[in-house]
Amino acid sequence: MLNIILFGPPGAGKGTQSKKLIGKYGLIHLSTGDVFRYNIKNETKLGVLAKSFIDQGELVPDEVTNNMVKDFLERNANENGFIFDGYPRTIAQGESLKTVLGEMGTSVTMMLALEVEEDELVKRLLERGKTSGRVDDQNEDTIRNRFRVYQKETSPLATFYSEQSKYMGVHGMGTVDSIFDRLCDAIEAKLS
Ligand code: AMP
User: Per the confidence metrics, is the pTM higher than 0.90?
Assistant: First the structure.
């Protein structure tokens, strides 16, 4: 299996690039944010729980998120691999992912980290908020809180995967296609 974590702060372009990567490499896209939003829209129990965290720019608790991901992975165990978009976001999630993939006889192949300056991120998120209907993209305070949470909870994962020689930084500014080309080059380099 080819299992790629697409990493980066909110607004880095993970969703956009994931959609292109799954087409090229025949992978399954797992965006935990999309799964939560689907559940919120359908007013499921999970959606009601997740909404209170998401609207504040806080993380949904690890246990809830990990169980959801485990369930998703087990249902898709016969696929070529996954693009993880927005997961893991904490070290505890990274550990859980390792365990679940290990039980499936596979592991994380690499973490591709999109590197984008913060001013550009805020600009992109506010722009997206005008059309996406996402409450968490429309308020600059919520956006700044998401960056704080990212710095504190999520950024340590870069070290976690560096220590396993799986981390690769990719310049995330420029056109969508030029960034995609850089991501593909990084994947090819890892696979060769
Ligand atoms: P995203 O679509 O990845 O920007 O995620 C939107 C929001 O969903 C985040 O700000 C969190 O509140 C929640 N969320 C998404 N993925 C996770 C995760 N792996 N762990 C905890 N919360 C998450």
Answer: yes
